[in-house]
Write a structure and sequence with these properties.
The complex is a heterodimer of chains A (about 350) and B (about 120).
Chain A: H1 4-25, E1 38-42, E2 48-52, E3 65-68, H2 86-92, E4 97-101, H3 114-133, E5 138-143, H4 145-156, E6 161-167, H5 179-185, H6 189-196, H7 201-209, H8 213-228, H9 232-245, H10 253-265, H11 268-271, E7 275-276, E8 279-280, E9 290-297, H12 303-307, H13 309-312, E10 319-327, H14 330-333, H15 337-350
Parallel strand pairs in A: 3-4, 3-5, 5-6, 6-9, 9-10
Antiparallel strand pairs in A: 1-2, 2-4, 7-8
Chain B: H1 14-22, H2 34-68, H3 81-95, H4 98-118
The chains are: A alpha/beta (about 350), B mainly alpha (about 120).
Chain lengths: ~350, ~120
């Protein structure tokens, strides 16, 4: 007999072995970025925003793209490998990009909540991004949970947002077969946060891995196979991706509690009941042109959860949906998919 | 079932399991008052119910695998890609059931109740 927790232990043990293998094979820093970036803004000891500017001359009127990544993983994945960098793909399209690193919260940050992230932090970041690129607005790219931030922010401050693209973003958490939401729905979040303070990254990892535990073990065997067959390039790529996945930061307790209760357990965003900063988030009055990108093989976020947006936005709001043949993470990490994602979004941002 | 149980998994204790899953450290010498003991028993019950759910994955996948192969070597199964695929497929269905979801949540909630009660209260 065994539990998912046992499997996690097994997977972590395998991960540690892979890390040892990595250090014996590769000498370079495994989490360094590859595109040229500039630290643009640090709002406190926690959050930093980086600017990536195309090397070639680009149209100075181009509205920069601010990428909102979820808090549950690090945005380093957007520039993880030389041939798997969404940031580099956007730069190739002559699109200036800003990326937020939400940082690694300590106990001192456990009282940061939705208002702090979606209003206070994003307001500062967007104002600084506009100032940096000398524009009046930004375009938003919300990835997964980051898409929730984008929808809320555009609803609260529509004048600051030109257009918005969403990648694998959940909107309705009550749709059928939303396994992750179903698992979380009955957990006593208040007790969890009271007991743990900040929510450990390991817990988030466990929840995600517990959706496909056997597939994870299978992937581990794949890395060992590549190492045995001296496929060091494949081995290196896989190890870097695994390292990123297991490098989940802790999440401020208040944020986790508010997000889980309001978005997942009570489905307030889809129901039109969500309040951020005491203001109602009404998707049915949102006017920001929206591109909703889905992954065909997304086992984390069911399509129905994202597609409901078409019904929630007003008929007059420009809205477009596109499905790529990839996975949730593949939208921004698959070598084959990355150029397509960047190209499609850039063209849509520039279209009439 | 007997064969399925022979797999060479590296099991840890129930306590360590949940500590791993939650990413927390469990008190090394927690309180053993009447209430603490009661909460711990509730967690143990919930944990066993959860394991019983997961065992169905092994059993179903194993029965299916045996039906498709004339000879099998149980101890080598933990790295058998085909068997892992079968397990994942069975688990995918289990994950969608309200019973599994409720059992999973109850295991975590009862563990948290115990941990919350005994934290910072080592004997």
């Amino acid at each position: 007999m065994y539990s998912v927790a046992s499997l996690m232990s097994y997977i972590r043990h395998g991960h540690a072995m892979c890390q040892d293998m990595a250090s014996s094979i590769f000498s370079n820093d495994i989490l360094s970025g590859f595109a040229s970036k500039k630290k643009m803004f640090a709002d406190d000891s926690l959050t930093t925003t980086y600017a990536f500017t195309p090397e070639k001359k680009f149209n100075k009127d181009t509205i920069p793209l601010l990428i909102l990544f979820p808090l549950i993983n690090k945005s380093t994945v957007l520039d993880l490998l030389p041939d798997r960098s969404l940031v580099k793909a956007f730069l190739k399209e002559q699109m200036p990009v800003a990326v937020i690193d939400w940082g690694e919260p300590t106990k001192a940050h456990k009282t940061l909540g939705l208002d702090d992230y979606i209003v206070n932090k994003l307001n500062s970041i967007i104002d600084k991004t506009c100032k940096y690129y000398k524009t009046k607005t930004v375009n938003l790219l919300g990835i997964s949970q980051g898409g929730n931030f984008a929808l809320c922010y555009a609803s609260l401050f529509p004048a600051k947002i030109n257009r918005m693209a969403l990648l694998g973003t959940p909107v309705d958490f009550y749709v059928q077969d939303f396994s992750l939401a179903a698992l979380v729905k009955q957990i006593n979040i208040e007790l969890l946060v009271n007991t743990l303070g900040n929510v450990p990254g390991n817990f988030i990892n466990s929840l995600l891995v517990s959706l496909k535990p056997y597939e994870w073990i299978s992937k581990q065997g794949e890395i060992v196979r590549m190492e045995n067959e001296t496929d060091y390039a494949g081995c290196y790529n896989s190890l870097k991706i695994k390292q990123w996945i297991f490098d989940t930061p802790d999440i401020p307790g208040k944020f986790f509690q508010e997000y889980t209760q309001k978005f997942i357990q009570e489905n307030q965003l889809a129901k039109g009941q969500l309040k951020i900063n005491n203001q109602l988030i009404s998707l049915n009055t949102l006017k920001t042109p929206t591109l909703n990108i889905l992954a065909q093989n997304d086992y984390l976020i069911p399509h129905a959860s994202s597609k409901i947006l078409a019904d929630l936005l007003p008929d007059t709001t420009p809205y477009q949906e596109h499905i790529f043949k990839t996975t949730h993470v593949g939208l921004y990490l698959s070598k084959r998919q990355i150029p397509q994602t960047a190209s499609y979004i850039t063209q849509w941002m520039a279209s009439d | 079932m007997d064969e399925a149980q022979q797999f060479d998994w590296e099991f840890t204790s129930a306590t360590d399991d949940l500590a791993q899953l939650l990413g927390v450290e469990v008190p090394k010498n927690p309180l053993k008052t009447q209430k603490a003991t009661k909460l711990w028993a509730q967690y143990q019950t919930a944990h066993m119910a959860y394991i019983a759910q997961l065992n169905t994955v092994n059993i179903k996948a194993w029965e299916q695998y045996k039906g498709e192969h004339s000879t099998v070597q149980p101890r080598a199964m933990s790295h058998n890609q085909e068997f892992l695929g079968l397990q994942q497929s069975v688990y995918d269905d289990l994950l969608k059931t309200p019973l599994y979801q409720a059992t999973f949540a109850k295991m975590i909630n009862t563990f948290l109740e115990w941990l919350n009660f005994v934290k910072d209260k080592e004997a």
